[in-house]
Design goal:
By secondary structure, the chain is α/β, with parallel strands linked by helices. It has two domains: about 220 residues, 3-Layer(aba) Sandwich (Rossmann fold); about 210 residues, Pyruvate-ferredoxin oxidoreductase, PFOR, domain III (Pyruvate-ferredoxin Oxidoreductase, domain 3). Helices cover about 35% and strands about 15% of the residues. The chain has a seven-stranded mixed beta sheet, with helices on both faces. A six-stranded mixed beta sheet has the order 9-10-8-11-12-13, sandwiched between helices. A hairpin with an 8-residue loop joins strand 9 and strand 10. Helix 1 packs across helix 7, helix 3 packs across helix 4 and helix 11 packs across helix 15. The radius of gyration is 28 Å and the shape is elongated. Bound molecules: thiamine diphosphate and iron/sulfur cluster. The site of iron/sulfur cluster (SF4) has 12 residues, from helix 8.
């Protein structure tokens, strides 16, 4: 039974704070745009099913990218067209979540055409709302895969021609040839009668997921007055009179009645099992080091390691993360690739925690390992108050400017040279950090390094470098700054 809701759905945020302090009560959509209405119908359905606290909305790339400013639920923004892949990952990791993939036609049928095909073919238990406005709204009205033959867009100024650009892709018809999808329907945002059908279809798509029935996709024909260069009323009429001739409304597949609910047993893995899966167990047997007692200031660190390409920055991060795994912590390792690899700074972000980790990236850093000056310049201010900065004082000839953090000046490159290989400055820093934080045992780190390093001739030099770093800190030499202080 459909309930009338005459107020703002609870599944929307109270205010739409797109920019801090903007406090908007309205959406950013153009007048007459279908997205706002569809958002409201989804939010009402979420209220009705009471799924707000377990729903995850995947925002696409396109006009609806800001869904996360409106829906008061879990929100993830996916790269262009990749929402079905992101939805798959979330649903499989958390089967109890209600995952909504919200996508435009450029996003779903263009760049993401392959993604949706395979998610549908796998029968993922997700709900996809496919907003078909036959154009790329956000980027200035370019042709979409669903643009009609003869329709003028900025990239088809003489109208789409089948010969040049092919035919409009009919997603519901296409997916209906697949075995797995449970429910495929095309509806339209036009008059009140059609809006009620959209409402019903949205509810059904969500209900299917709640009952574990499988893949549902609701294609919603939606006006884009701005993209089409029409007044809102004309745009609505154009959906009715023109768009629907190519994209006929109706149910293209409905196996809801016979679809058996999927029962997923979620297995909890023990730390030992995880190590085995990751191939991190010693000689194939279960192997875990004890977690040492760690001073409160060094617990659960979010670590940034930064330097230039060739300094083994990412490898150092891997060693930290793997040592953390072997010591029974939760951990993430997030490398940053980008233009940096061509000579600037390379960096990675590691989290080591006693608790489950929500995101691999935090706004603040507890520990910064700066291997060169640009890294210190760039990340010094991201370190939290009372955090820790390890400075490779061989290459950084200035003091840390902050006076509210702890600093270890370690001449890592020189110490590495002393053991005969400049490249193991990263291992020196690993030794220094291990000695300072005592977050894992040095046996654990050495074992990890030995397991990880493929060329066995490096084992000795790695170990020496690691010990040099440890000794340097344990002997309290790190307070002395060797280089010129600017
Ligand atoms: C990888 C990538 N390619 C291209 C773009 C540019 N881009 C942004 S939105 C968009 C089209 C979105 O159109 P549609 O999915 O139909 O959504 P609408 O804006 O109409 O709601 C494109 C091509 C991008 N952001 N990322
Ligand atoms: S450009 Fe089109 S799809 Fe985007 S907000 Fe405006 S009307 Fe809506």
């Amino acid at each position: 039974m459909v309930k009338d809701i005459l107020e703002k759905p609870e599944s929307f945020y109270e205010i739409f704070e797109r920019k801090s302090g903007s406090n908007k009560l309205t959406t950013h959509y153009c007048p007459g745009c279908g997205h706002g209405v569809i958002h409201k119908l989804i939010a009402e359905a979420m209220d009705e099913f009471g799924i707000g606290d377990r729903a995850v909305m995947i925002s696409p790339v396109g006009c609806s990218v800001f869904a996360y400013y409106y829906f008061d639920c879990g929100n993830v923004q996916a790269p262009h067209g990749r929402a079905p892949a992101v939805a798959t990952g979330i649903k499989r990791a958390i089967p109890d979540s209600i995952v909504i993939s919200y996508q435009g036609d450029g996003d779903l049928a263009g760049i993401g055409g392959n993604e949706i095909l395979h998610a549908a073919n796998r029968g993922e238990n997700i709900t996809v709302f496919f907003v078909n406005n036959a154009i790329y709204g956000m980027t200035g009205s370019q042709m979409a895969p669903t643009t009609l033959i003869g329709q003028k867009t900025t990239t088809t100024p003489y109208g789409r021609s089948a010969r040049n650009e092919g035919y409009p892709i009919k997603v519901c018809e296409l997916l209906s040839s697949l075995e797995a999808p449970v429910y495929l329907e095309r509806v339209a945002i036009t008059d009140a009668k059609n809006v009620m059908k959209v409402r019903k279809a949205i509810r059904k798509g969500l209900q299917n997921q709640i009952e574990g029935k499988g893949f549902s996709l609701i294609e919603i024909l939606s006006p884009c007055p701005t993209g089409w260069g029409m007044k809102p009323v004309d745009a609505k009429n154009w959906v009715d009179e023109v768009l629907m001739k190519t994209f006929q409304l109706g149910v293209f597949k409905d196996k809801t009645a016979e679809a058996a609910p999927e029962i997923i047993e979620q297995k909890e893995f023990t730390s030992d099992e995880i190590l085995k899966i990751l191939g991190a167990s010693k000689n194939g047997s279960d192997f875990l080091y004890d977690k040492p007692e760690v001073k409160i200031n060094y617990q659960n660190p979010r670590i940034k390691i930064s330097g230039f390409g060739g300094q083994g920055i990412l490898f150092l991060g891997q060693l930290l993360s793997q040592s953390a795994m072997r010591s029974g912590y939760y951990t993430t390792w997030l490398p940053s690739y980008g233009p940096e690899v061509r000579g600037g700074t390379a960096n990675c972000h590691i989290i080591i925690s006693n608790n489950r980790i929500g995101s691999p990236l935090g706004a603040e850093t507890d520990v910064l390992i700066a291997m060169n000056l640009p890294s210190l310049d760039k990340f010094e201010n991201d370190v939290r108050k009372d955090g820790l900065i390890l400075v490779n004082s061989s290459l950084i000839s200035r003091n840390v400017k902050r006076n509210d953090v702890e600093v270890l000046y370690v001449p890592a490159t020189e110490l590495a040279d002393e053991v005969g290989n400049t490249k193991v400055a990263n291992l020196v820093m690993l030794g220094a950090y291990t000695a300072k934080s005592k977050i894992f045992s040095h046996d654990c780190v050495l074992f990890t390094a030995n397991e990880t390093v493929k060329k066995k001739e490096f084992l000795k030099v790695n170990e020496e470098a690691f010990r040099k770093g440890m000794e340097y800190v344990l002997n309290n030499k790190h307070k002395k700054i060797k280089n010129t202080i600017l």
